[in-house]
Prior knowledge:
By secondary structure, the chain is an all-alpha fold. The protein has helices at 3-7, 16-35, 40-47, 55-81, 85-108, 111-131, 145-165, 170-182, 186-210, 216-240, 242-266. The chain has one domain (3-266). It contains 11 helices and no strands. α5 runs parallel beside α7 (145-165). The protein starts with a helix and ends with a helix. The chain crosses the membrane at residues 20-42, 88-111, 117-134, 146-165, 171-190, 202-223, 243-262. It is a multi-pass membrane protein. This is Probable membrane transporter protein.
Amino acid sequence: MDLSALAGSGLDSAASGFVVLLVLTGFAAGFIDAVVGGGGLLQLPVMLLIPGITPVQALATNKMGSVFGTTTSAVTFYRRVHPDLRTALPMAVVALVASGAGAAAAAALPAAVFKPIIVLALIAVLVFTVAKPSMGQLTALRHTGARHYGLAVALGALIGFYDGVMGPGTGSFLIIGLVSLLGYSFLAASAKAKIVNLATNIGAIAVFAAHGSVLWGLGLVLGLSNMAGGYIGARTAVARGSAFIRVVFFTVVTVLIAKLGWDVLTGR
Length: 268
């Protein structure tokens, strides 16, 4: 298959094996994103293997694929878990705006400035979660009223800004924030995180599309495979519950620490 025709841009021709690889990767990334987030760590490096694609095109098209998968998993979670939209929607609105601000900050400050901080934060999150094995098994809200919604909105702003600046592990940060700060179970937190993450992805897509960076044909292929992975991942998370999500969370955060830590050490 000719990837240049598929993407609708000036990409070099590539073997159909690239498309097969993208479909498989998109499915796996959609599954991981649906459960705990972090699928971009798998998807983006494969995008960068495509001959002729620029880093900006890879980022933009990766986001497009993620929007499909996140939408599917958000709808699936909503239908099966019924997350409290009074918390999720204000978080999503603020996160969307904050992600735009983060993208603007990213233009002025390179990602390398933030990576050491993110690595330390991830290590702290992992240690904290291991030290509290019962955390996130059941929903036991720690705050009520204005304090609850205030913390939720602040979390949405912080994570939305991070998603605009860097992005890897956004879903994982949302989940641990909802679990540790607000007292949700891992399952309930995952359901809300998908709604918020969908908003940040839409914000990013709007910016990338305005600059003509999205490869729509390639993004559609990636999006459809993300949808399949997101649907199965969300159903699996609902069926297996918080204990399963916790295990996947540990795995994804460990990989995030290793990947970003290596970037810091090698100066990438």
